[in-house]
């Protein structure tokens, strides 16, 4: 009887210790903390990552160098957020895998003053623009090129500078994130207009959650658990906006006001899950359109796309965490031992 108790206790202790262990992973954001990443914050706050057996560290980006590819490919981060230029990286040989597109449209726009004579892409000809990147926010450049503007002329017209130079009249148009600079300038009473790629037929993904091929190959279960828990966090964030804003402000972004975060949440909700879309959803058809915008030919796309878009292992409705599975195993293993213990006691 004592032997039976000993083995029962030992088994339960081993399974308990196993269940309390967590896989440590790092998520590298593409910007500083704000509501833009609230789904990941809520996955941590509500214990969704913990329930999935994960201990997740969420790192903000360096505003002076927000490129996240180096961190993932060098193994400094297991997961990261980036823009639609990830497809270009894949074509150029970077072993990256897109897990989910958390923004179905690009949040980047050109901002002009209310009295500007710029109303559409072709009006940018001969104007002074803030510095353009062919990788980050490339859709802003592509929008102008599709209107017939010459690439070399655009690059020559672009110059260093931001909001203050724009306010001083040194720039005619400046690149902005739809929820950041426009909100600040509205508070300052500065009239402005936004000219966004989405309005001119450039529907590219934004805020793409991704990982490396090595991570997916070596630790597919961790990738799946992180993927599912992150989506669960985003569902919770969208259905509990006030709570998510409070958590974002209190735990991650005390430098931002509640009003600013509420504005950001209200605007981004339409980008995260517009009517008829699936949360985090991606399609080969839309990636093919994005490839066209980046002048990636069909053969390059076909070669690069194989293995590029994550094929989740289970439907979103099935979210059995590994801790729950261990609990089931524990129950099954302990029941016969308990019955044996009772039987021995009756003798």
UniProtKB/TrEMBL annotation:
<dbReference type="InterPro" id="IPR015168">
    <property type="entry name" value="SsuA/THI5"/>
</dbReference>
<comment type="similarity">
    <text>Belongs to the NMT1/THI5 family.</text>
</comment>
<keyword id="KW-0812">Transmembrane</keyword>
<keyword id="KW-0732">Signal</keyword>
<keyword id="KW-1133">Transmembrane helix</keyword>
<dbReference type="InterPro" id="IPR027939">
    <property type="entry name" value="NMT1/THI5"/>
</dbReference>
<keyword id="KW-0472">Membrane</keyword>
<keyword id="KW-0408">Iron</keyword>
<keyword id="KW-0479">Metal-binding</keyword>
<keyword id="KW-0784">Thiamine biosynthesis</keyword>
<comment type="function">
    <text>Responsible for the formation of the pyrimidine heterocycle in the thiamine biosynthesis pathway. Catalyzes the formation of hydroxymethylpyrimidine phosphate (HMP-P) from histidine and pyridoxal phosphate (PLP). The protein uses PLP and the active site histidine to form HMP-P, generating an inactive enzyme. The enzyme can only undergo a single turnover, which suggests it is a suicide enzyme.</text>
</comment>
<protein>
    <recommendedName>
        <fullName>Thiamine pyrimidine synthase</fullName>
    </recommendedName>
</protein>
<keyword id="KW-0663">Pyridoxal phosphate</keyword>
<comment type="pathway">
    <text>Cofactor biosynthesis; thiamine diphosphate biosynthesis.</text>
</comment>
<feature type="domain" description="SsuA/THI5-like">
    <location>
        <begin position="34"/>
        <end position="240"/>
    </location>
</feature>
<keyword id="KW-0808">Transferase</keyword>
<comment type="subunit">
    <text>Homodimer.</text>
</comment>
<feature type="transmembrane region" description="Helical">
    <location>
        <begin position="320"/>
        <end position="341"/>
    </location>
</feature>
<feature type="signal peptide">
    <location>
        <begin position="1"/>
        <end position="21"/>
    </location>
</feature>
<dbReference type="Pfam" id="PF09084">
    <property type="entry name" value="NMT1"/>
</dbReference>
């Amino acid at each position: 009887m004592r032997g039976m108790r000993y083995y029962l206790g030992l088994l339960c202790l081993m399974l308990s210790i196993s269940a309390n262990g967590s896989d440590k992973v790092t998520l590298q954001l593409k910007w500083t903390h704000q509501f833009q990443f609230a789904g990941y914050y809520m996955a941590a706050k509500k214990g969704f990552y913990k329930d999935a057996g994960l201990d997740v560290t969420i790192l903000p980006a360096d505003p002076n160098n927000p490129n996240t590819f180096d961190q993932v490919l060098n193994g400094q981060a297991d997961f990261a957020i980036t823009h639609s230029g990830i497809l270009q990286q894949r074509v150029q040989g970077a072993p990256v895998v897109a897990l989910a597109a958390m923004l179905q449209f690009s949040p980047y726009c050109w901002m002009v003053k209310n009295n500007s004579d710029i109303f559409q892409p072709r009006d940018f000809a001969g104007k002074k623009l803030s510095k353009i990147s062919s990788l980050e926010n490339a859709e802003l450049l592509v929008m102008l090129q599709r209107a017939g503007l010459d690439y070399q002329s655009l690059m020559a017209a672009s110059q260093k500078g931001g909001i203050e130079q724009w306010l001083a009249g040194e720039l005619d148009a400046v690149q902005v994130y739809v929820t950041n600079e426009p909100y600040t300038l509205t508070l300052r009473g500065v009239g402005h207009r936004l000219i966004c790629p989405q309005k001119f037929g450039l529907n590219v993904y934004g805020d793409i959650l991704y990982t490396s091929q090595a991570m997916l190959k070596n630790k597919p279960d961790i990738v799946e658990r992180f993927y599912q828990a992150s989506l669960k966090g985003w569902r919770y964030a969208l259905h509990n906006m006030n709570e998510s804003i409070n958590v974002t402000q209190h735990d991650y972004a005390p430098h931002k006001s509640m009003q600013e975060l509420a504005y950001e949440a209200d605007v981004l909700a339409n980008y995260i899950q517009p009517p008829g879309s699936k949360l985090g959803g991606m399609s080969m058809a839309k990636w093919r359109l994005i490839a066209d915008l980046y002048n990636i030919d069909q053969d390059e796309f076909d070669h690069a796309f194989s293995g590029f878009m994550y094929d989740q292992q289970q439907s979103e409705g099935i979210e059995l965490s590994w801790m729950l599975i261990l609990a089931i195993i524990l129950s099954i293993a302990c029941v016969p031992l308990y019955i044996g213990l009772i039987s021995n006691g009756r003798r």
